[in-house]
């Protein structure tokens, strides 16, 4: 599509106040800055961060779009003056600076990836947030190495499924937790050595029985609460524990003796607060190290469900209930 056929206005999802109903509104199509591309969006990924932003608990940066949505897939329709490697008509998936729940969205060029060969737009929209979050936390922060043992909590989430597949493809021995036997078996089929049903099993006891007390090199935790102590107990000497969320709470009583005795590192991060430059480094490393595994089919995102833009409330309800496995995707028109 040439720039002279881009409409002036497009539909997007709007929210008038914290926790108020979502609705479809019309606004101006954004204009890309010099280092941005304009994307006609086919599909947009839904993330728990969107629900937190909607509730007023995760305010966007001052320079970000107030429209929800952190990742999209679609077609490039215009580029900023300094963009050289992207052209109108290219298929792209991107981490946005907000604004993804819309028919048109802009994205910094350093956060844009090609759609892997054979991927639908629905699958491509499931990639950016999970790829960058998992890469940054498991590989840049925790320095996960081939052959090491990694424990990934929330394995059935969009983030968790990507973590299981990426860590397995890059040579780690993966253990994970999920909320049903069916999800556990599905995660084992995607590379986990053992998936533990946290509703019927105590993951600390299961892994201890497997000889992994003091044997987990890296833990990726989005649960927090009482998991914090269990993670410390299971960690190997020189182990690394990374938190990306605290769904069971930020506060708990913890015995930190294992931190000292085993010389552990505890860290955490959010993706959105990091600079465009930091995210561009993540993207470039992913293109070198992870993208070949997307191209050859070793890593393929798990899609839980799709919803048309007008059913965004139902999509958020699906995310909130927490029974999904993989990514929940909004479709703008007839994306596949």
Automatic annotation (TrEMBL):
The keyword NADP applies. SMART domains: PKS_ER. Keywords: NADP, Oxidoreductase. Signal peptide: none annotated. Coiled coil: none annotated. The keyword NADP applies. InterPro entries: ADH-like_N, ER, GroES-like_sf, NAD(P)-bd_dom_sf, Quinone_OxRdtase_PIG3. Residues 17-330 form the Enoyl reductase (ER) domain. NCBIfam families: quinone_pig3. This is NAD(P)H-quinone oxidoreductase.
């Amino acid at each position: 599509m040439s720039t002279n056929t881009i409409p002036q206005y497009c539909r997007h999802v709007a929210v008038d106040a914290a926790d108020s109903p979502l609705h479809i509104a019309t606004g101006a199509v954004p204009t890309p800055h010099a280092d941005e591309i304009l994307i006609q969006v086919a599909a947009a990924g839904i993330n728990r961060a969107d629900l937190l932003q909607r509730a007023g608990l995760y305010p966007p940066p001052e320079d970000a779009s107030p429209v929800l949505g952190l990742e999209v897939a679609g077609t490039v329709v215009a580029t900023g003056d300094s963009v050289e490697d992207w052209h109108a008509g290219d298929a792209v998936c991107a981490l946005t600076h907000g604004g993804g729940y819309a028919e048109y969205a802009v994205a910094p060029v350093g956060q844009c990836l090609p759609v892997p060969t054979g991927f639908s737009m629905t699958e491509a929209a499931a990639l950016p947030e999970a790829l960058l979050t998992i890469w940054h936390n498991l590989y840049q922060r925790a320095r996960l190495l081939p052959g090491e043992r990694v424990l990934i909590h929330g394995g059935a989430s969009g983030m968790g499924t990507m973590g299981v597949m990426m860590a397995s493809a890059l040579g780690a021995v993966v253990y994970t937790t999920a909320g049903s036997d069916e999800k556990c078996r599905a995660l084992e089929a995607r590379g986990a050595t053992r998936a533990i049903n946290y509703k019927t099993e105590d993951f600390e006891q299961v892994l201890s029985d497997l000889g992994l007390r003091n044997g987990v090199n890296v833990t990726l935790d989005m649960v927090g609460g009482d998991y914090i102590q269990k993670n410390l107990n299971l960690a190997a000497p020189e182990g690394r524990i990374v938190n990306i969320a605290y769904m069971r709470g930020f506060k708990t009583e913890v015995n930190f003796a294992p931190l000292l005795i085993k010389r552990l590192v505890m860290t955490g991060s959010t993706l959105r607060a990091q600079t465009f430059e930091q995210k561009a480094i993540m993207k470039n490393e992913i293109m070198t190290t992870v993208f070949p595994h997307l191209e050859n089919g070793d890593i393929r995102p798990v899609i839980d469900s799709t919803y048309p833009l007008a059913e965004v409330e139902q999509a958020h309800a699906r995310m909130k209930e927490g029974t999904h496995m993989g990514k929940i995707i909004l479709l703008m028109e007839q994306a596949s």
